[in-house]
Amino acid sequence: MKYNLRSFACIIFIAGIFFVACTKQGNPEVSELSHTNQFSSKVATDWFTLEADLARANSAFGPGTAGRAFAYTGLALYESVVPGMPSYQSVYGPITSSYFSTEKKKDYYWPACANAALAEIIRKLFVTSSSQGQDAINKLDSSNLASYQGKASTEQLDLSIAFGKLVGSSIFEWSKADGGVPPFTTYTPTLPVPLGEWEPTPPAFAPGVTPNWGSNRPIIPAVANLPLPPPPTPYSEDPSSGFYKMANDVYQQSTHLTPDDTLLVKTWFDIPGNYNGQTHLTKVLTQLIQAEGFDLEKAAAAYAQHGIAVNDAAIPCFKAKYTYKLIRPITYIRRVMGHTTWNTVLPTPPHPEYTAAHAVITGASATVLSYYFGNNYSFTDHTHDALYGPRSYQTIDEYKKSAGWSRVLAGVHYIPSVDIGYTQGKAVGDVVLAFPFKKG
Fold first, then answer.
1. Do 73 and 197 belong together in one domain?
2. How far apart are CA 216 and CA 345, in angstroms?
3. Average pLDDT for the chain
4. Count of domains observed in the chain
5. Is a pLDDT exceeding 60 seen at residue 176?
């Protein structure tokens, strides 16, 4: 049988189509889904939901340590999948001069990379968790891995798991030198306490916590170079002074609290113990990622930038606190203003007043959320549906100011400390967003 050139070309073309079709049908993940943005963010949101529960159940995870955990977990997630994000680049590499390498001409299954990295770093961060907590980590790890069977080859999965574990383990080891690992020192002022300076507050009169947190290594190095906020309002006991007026504003506000004011205070006080502001902010991000259907690429970048911003914001905040050592409202109102039985809605945190930590970390959070969702984004926060009901916000700015204002209503902060806290937090968020996550 003879074939002319045109007939032969047609046969080759048809055979080629058949081969490609068979390849795609036999293993679509290898040929079609090689980029991170073609996968669901579910592996990320499931892990961050579990991490929030672990932080709540572990007494070692107060606000600073919880925020730190979310930051390094977000970074591990990002670094485990960034090789599949052509528009993005490593963050860990430029900071540490240590880069993670993927094998050339090898195809990775990015959900498995993410799962392995998150399981590895969360397992190490929460090594002190209860047996139930460790079981929950192992169960989610195994469940996710089982769901990947048949979606990628055994070689792909083995390669991806090894890469993810390397990323998670390496970032955990790097985290141990940042200054945020216990045991922590405490601060007790020398007596007599200078006028206007912080001293332990009722009812516990506990020493100041984490006085060295302001010296911690931020994840984004430029955060360490941010200037201190301006000094607080000059201390005075003169009833005509700005300081007296500032304290009186807190006192007067406390005498006119509405039921919704009290509910707002409790909502942002979260659950006494470890369900703190940093955990709450991360829960909000998870809700928004799920609501908007982020893919794995966008979720990885958002978790990394948000976690880093919230963690790094606490460092200059505490540097300001222990630089200025400003007296808390409860001490001033009772001693200077003479309201000796006056009390706050919730216990005053055991550290100096200025700047307001809730305002700082929420200012950093809101800066990142505005980048991803736009400031005019409206949403409902369901973090505390069972306790306090859902709370809706018309803008990201309203969400930010809700958290900060709750601390004034609670009686634990002066208004200027909150306002300057927003500015301080935004400065940190801007530095994080300016870091070159994206190429070019």
1. no
2. 31
3. 92
4. 2
5. yes
Q: Domain range for residue 116?
A: 26-175
And the tokens for 20? 């490609």
Q: What is the DSSP letter of 42?
A: H
- Type of residue found at 415: I
Res 4 pLDDT > 60: no
Backbone angles phi, psi at 163, to 5 degrees: -65, -45
Six token digits for residue 415:
């208004």
For 366, other C-beta atoms within 10 Å of its C-beta total 26
For residue 95, the one-letter residue type is: I
What are the pLDDT digits (tens) for 421-436?
999 999 999 999 999 9
215 and 356 share a domain? yes
Question: Are 352 and 206 found together in one domain?
Answer: yes
**Do 124 and 195 belong together in one domain?**
no
Question: CB under 8 Å to 387, separation ≥6 — which residues?
Answer: 266, 271
Query: Is 266 inside a domain boundary?
Result: yes
Q: Are residues 275 and 133 in the same domain?
A: no
User: Which pLDDT value is given to residue 149?
Assistant: 96
Strands 208-209 and 186-187: antiparallel
The residue out of 120, 149, 175 marking a domain boundary is 175
Same domain, 201 and 151: no
Condensed to tens digits (0 to 9), the pLDDT of residues 31-64 reads 344 899 999 999 999 999 999 999 988 888 999 9
Please name the amino acid found at residue 312: D
Per-residue pLDDT, 274: 61
- Nearest Cα to Cα of residue 218 among 22, 24, 431: 431
Residue 346 has pLDDT above 70, yes or no: yes
Cβ contacts of 394 within 8 Å, gap of 6 or more: 378
CA distance 291 to 310: 21
What tokens were used for 365?
């959070």
Whichever domain contains 286, its CATH number is 1.10.606.20
Tally Cβ neighbours within 10 Å of residue 75: 28
Which residues, 6+ apart, have CB-to-CB distance to 348 below 8 Å?
201, 202, 328, 329, 330, 411, 412
User: What CATH number is attached to the domain comprising 81?
Assistant: 1.20.144
